[in-house]
Amino acid sequence: MSEAMLSKVRKLLAQAEDAACTPAEAAAFTAKATELIARYGVDRALLAARDPATDPVGDRVVDVVAPYARDKAGLLAAVADPLRCRCVRRRQGAGFAMHLFGFASDLERVELLFTSLLVQAAHGLAGAVVPAEEHPAAFRRTWLAGFAHVIGDRLRAAEAAAVASSGASSTALVLADRSDRVRLRLAEVYPRLRTAAPRRLAGTGFGSGVAAGRRADLGGTGVATGEAAPGITR
């Protein structure tokens, strides 16, 4: 991502996270940051269609650590899918090694967003009130599920809007081809993948997580590849 755009996104993120920022102001900052990062993804895809060497298909591994490692992995998947990346979850100690596949620019977007959203989720959970009769871990798992659900929906909407506003009739075909190439690369590395069984969560935090996901800034703060992601406290 260019330094100029990254600087804009970071400023939007900082404004949205300011304690003095009203919900309406935070929503406005969030919308602009999401628009910028989605537009960047479409621009890079169209450029790579003309010059493939500028944005090759690749992969990288992101370590997702305890506590709530499975829930964080679900958030990563919710970010990766709308941005045309695929991920494979591999058990690693008490956490997971998430093997991501995608074009270089899209993998960059996923990591930027995921790292920022982990921080925002930690802040949101710290302020969430757990019902007195409920186990805190159960509440927080459903909170994170709701958060991830809304983040995925928002990213899909932003990507669709960026495609619609690109002005290039070939954009949808270019992106579909990129998605096919990512799936092919994943199948080459993991020819016998199994789909994980759906989870059953008993907590009541889903609605609170949904509300927090709607407020979350999708701009990303940036993180060096290979650094551990921030944890979510118990």
Give the % helix: 55-70%
The major sheet is characterized as: 3 strands, antiparallel
Report the portion of residues in β strands: 5-15%
Number of helices: 7
- Radius of gyration of CA atoms, rounded to a whole number: 18 Å
H and E string: HHEHEEHHHH
Number of E strands: 3
**What is the average of the pLDDT values?**
80
Give the helix/strand class: mainly alpha
Identify low-pLDDT runs. Answer: 220-234
The main sheet orders its strands as: 1-3-2
Shape: globular
Instruction: Report, as a whole number of angstroms, the end-to-end distance.
Output: 34 Å
Features:
59% helix; 7 helices; 3 strands; mainly alpha; single chain; 234 residues
Layout of secondary structure:
Elements: H1 3-17, H2 23-50, E1 57-64, H3 69-80, E2 86-92, E3 95-103, H4 104-127, H5 136-164, H6 171-189, H7 206-215
Antiparallel strand pairs: 1-3, 2-3
Helix pairs in contact: 1-2, 2-5, 2-6, 3-4, 3-5, 5-7
